[in-house]
From TrEMBL:
<dbReference type="InterPro" id="IPR045093">
    <property type="entry name" value="Cullin"/>
</dbReference>
<dbReference type="InterPro" id="IPR036390">
    <property type="entry name" value="WH_DNA-bd_sf"/>
</dbReference>
<protein>
    <submittedName>
        <fullName>CUL9 protein</fullName>
    </submittedName>
</protein>
<feature type="domain" description="Cullin neddylation">
    <location>
        <begin position="19"/>
        <end position="96"/>
    </location>
</feature>
<dbReference type="InterPro" id="IPR036388">
    <property type="entry name" value="WH-like_DNA-bd_sf"/>
</dbReference>
<dbReference type="InterPro" id="IPR019559">
    <property type="entry name" value="Cullin_neddylation_domain"/>
</dbReference>
Length: 100
């Protein structure tokens, strides 16, 4: 009986999944940090602030990370994730305004 080596594409796929999870975690942290300070904010402003922070590589005052490419779809996906988890909520009567 001979064991075959693990396929290279499987390792690559796992690395990509891990990188996407780390990116999602950073984005979720940025969103919650921004909304903790602002208390409520229009979803468009949240997206712009998160994208700006990603480009500058800033998680908040005094906390830096390597900047990475971030798109509005990524941020909106994380907003929906946080809404489903109960960390954020939509303002009554104004669903485009998010509250922490």
């Amino acid at each position: 009986l001979r064991l075959l080596p693990q396929q290279r594409y499987l390792r690559t796929e796992r690395a990509e999944v891990s990188a996407l999870e780390r990116k999602r975690n950073v984005l979720c942290c940025l969103i919650t940090r921004i909304l903790k300070v602002e208390k409520q904010l229009h979803v468009d402003n949240v997206v712009f602030r998160v994208i700006d922070a990603c480009q500058k590589g800033e998680l908040g005052p005094g906390v830096h990370f390597l900047s990475f490419c971030c798109h509005s779809v990524d941020v909106l996906s994380c907003v929906l994730h946080l809404l489903n988890q109960g960390y954020l909520r939509r303002q009554e009567g104004r669903p485009q305004v998010l509250e922490y």
